[in-house]
Amino acid sequence: MISLAKLQRRIDAGDLSADDSIAQSLEAITAQDKTIGAFVCRAENLRAASDGPLRGIAVGIKDIIDTADFPTEMGSPIYRGYRPRGDAAVVMMLKQAGASIIGKTTTTAFASVDPTPTFNPHNKGHTPGGSSSGSAAAVAAGMVPLALGTQTGGSVIRPASFCGVAAIKPSYHLLPTVGVKCFSWTLDTVGLFAAGVDDVARGLSAMTGRPELLLPPTISTPRIGVVTQDFAGAPEASGEAALRIARRAVEKAGATVRALALPKNVAEAWRAQPVVQEFEAHRALAWEYREHYDAMAPLLRAKLDGSRDTTSFAYDEAIAVATRARQALEKVFDGVEVLLTLSAPGVAPKGLGSTGDARYNRVWTLMGVPCVNVPALVAEINLPVGVQVIARYGADAQALAAARFVEQALAGRISAA
Amino acid sequence: MISLAKLQRRIDAGDLSADDSIAQSLEAITAQDKTIGAFVCRAENLRAASDGPLRGIAVGIKDIIDTADFPTEMGSPIYRGYRPRGDAAVVMMLKQAGASIIGKTTTTAFASVDPTPTFNPHNKGHTPGGSSSGSAAAVAAGMVPLALGTQTGGSVIRPASFCGVAAIKPSYHLLPTVGVKCFSWTLDTVGLFAAGVDDVARGLSAMTGRPELLLPPTISTPRIGVVTQDFAGAPEASGEAALRIARRAVEKAGATVRALALPKNVAEAWRAQPVVQEFEAHRALAWEYREHYDAMAPLLRAKLDGSRDTTSFAYDEAIAVATRARQALEKVFDGVEVLLTLSAPGVAPKGLGSTGDARYNRVWTLMGVPCVNVPALVAEINLPVGVQVIARYGADAQALAAARFVEQALAGRISAA
């Protein structure tokens, strides 16, 4: 993988020109993407910006995010050749920070669950996960140092876990969704993929112009609550192993760790999330569903068919459940700085028939809290598994710092004093 | 004006065909719009839907709301000829309820403050207000029974007050903003204009499929708190008269009325609203501002120039202020069902140099609470002035019912038992 932090250091030191940095990504895509399929379209020639913290950084953009310079096809033939008039807010934030947009990455149709023809770079017999399939795969394969995705259920953290890359789903609305195709306005969140936690932090800090999101020079030892999300069912052996190994590593590194039971309200919110997601999707995708029913991707269409009769009463109830759960979760964070939990049930599923299961992600998207994936182990058949570090709403800096602690603990780079 | 309720009754009774109802609106636009300028573009021929509660109802759509069948030009040459791929969620909600989209109404550029060439139907020497200028004017002139607008500061309630029509800015996100050009994601709210409160309630209920938003057969007598929003400065004589007359009318009609001082937090939120609005606008309109600076409307551009340096710290503070104010406002509604306050400082300003002042609207948009304009008096030079009825977040039905009470009290149709 390409480390954004390393690129920045080499560019700043004059060891690498910003243009050469971009050229390396262009070459990597040419060399690798025919066997991975992470990009829908890409730039042929691309220059670096002359300044900005992300100059020389090539970024892949999930293809539900508007770009004026590339078509934006939403993973659906309904938008074939569609060329937005302008760039999405997050694309402009990248450009203003000096980044270069190198191409559009594959997305399941409208960021739902119909798989794309993208392979997991670690094992091409497996899915990279979704819905941000191409962004996770492009970073994992070392084609780009940074990519944008979006998460409504588990579409950033899950593919990051399957592809062995770091990623953040920031607090709700830290990054604007203006110019991002909507699935659910209560849930949709733009996220970042990069090689490691420091790389993700640098990307997010530069985009938002928030220096407080950079990792501090010294990472303090966090108080960690481990949660297993029993309401979501049991994990597979590899998922369980990842959480166990991460827990052991942070304990060894001196963190205060305790198992936590989540409040009942949070379990209720886990059940409410699909109601919110699908009620809103019926409105957000009403034009596509009514006017282009036959061209809709089959799994998404079946999901919408099955949720047609969700009442506004059920939706209002689900929103009320979410509000109560957010309040209850705030109190959980009075006792611990971050939660440590599963990013996915286990390794990436075999084949390209499914993008995997978002069951350990969806309640956190509804809670709007920042979630960071940290690769934790490489399981059988060369497939990675990550763990998820979660902080309270708005504490993205804390989530990143604690994730860095977990990352370094797993690498054996911290030991208790 | 055309009453939506009356049209529905005539169509249901077979006194008027749904197609003839639409044809009447087409003719009214042909007859009137050359002297009003409410429409950017319009259908030449249009048929009614065969069913749905809004069949036969012609609707004007503010031109920042995406329509697949009409260009969507955002009031700006930057979007000249722009044709979205699909319909906005609210347009689909109208169509699914059986309404017919008759055309696009004028909007200030990106729903900001640069006036459109639209005249107030009551007095063509005056503005209809903005930013939903065309939608308010089209309803006031009797061209359509229903129109959609949006409000970020005061862009629904203010033009409704200036044009003497009923309107609702519903609770935040009761209507989705998917496919609506974003100015500020925390504030932007889609609203409805119609002849009277019952008409507005019928439109909103049909769009959302929520029968609870229809007016009840018997309107109960509300407990009303009158607020003058002193933090926003004093009103003009006509605005003050409107509030005084409305207060006297509801007292005479038997309502319990008392003057209320708003919590200090709400006054702080009033000062915070422009910070939220402009910080977010810099991100939402980043592409336009950076790539089409010269083509930006001058007042909007000057506003953006002046707020370039707003820090994320100031924004975070403003959001925190808003959160505290929402909590404080909830408690105010423990004592009264609705607030009664000014919709605008006074009558519509003279000329087309300004769309008027949103100072009595902006805090309510930030609070996300439902606001209904009720026309209260016709002041000097034939210009109307409205008052604003406000309920707690989510209590749109209560806001509408109380607004109906105010409307009937003003018409002298209720007297205390």
Automatic annotation (TrEMBL), chains A, B:
InterPro entries: Amidase, Amidase_dom, AS_sf. One of its GO terms (molecular function) is catalytic activity. Residues 48-399 form the Amidase domain. Pfam families: Amidase. Gene3D superfamilies: Amidase signature (AS) domain. PANTHER family: GLUTAMYL-TRNA(GLN) AMIDOTRANSFERASE SUBUNIT A (PTHR11895:SF151), TRANSAMIDASE (PTHR11895). Belongs to the amidase family. This is Amidase. It comes from Bradyrhizobium icense.
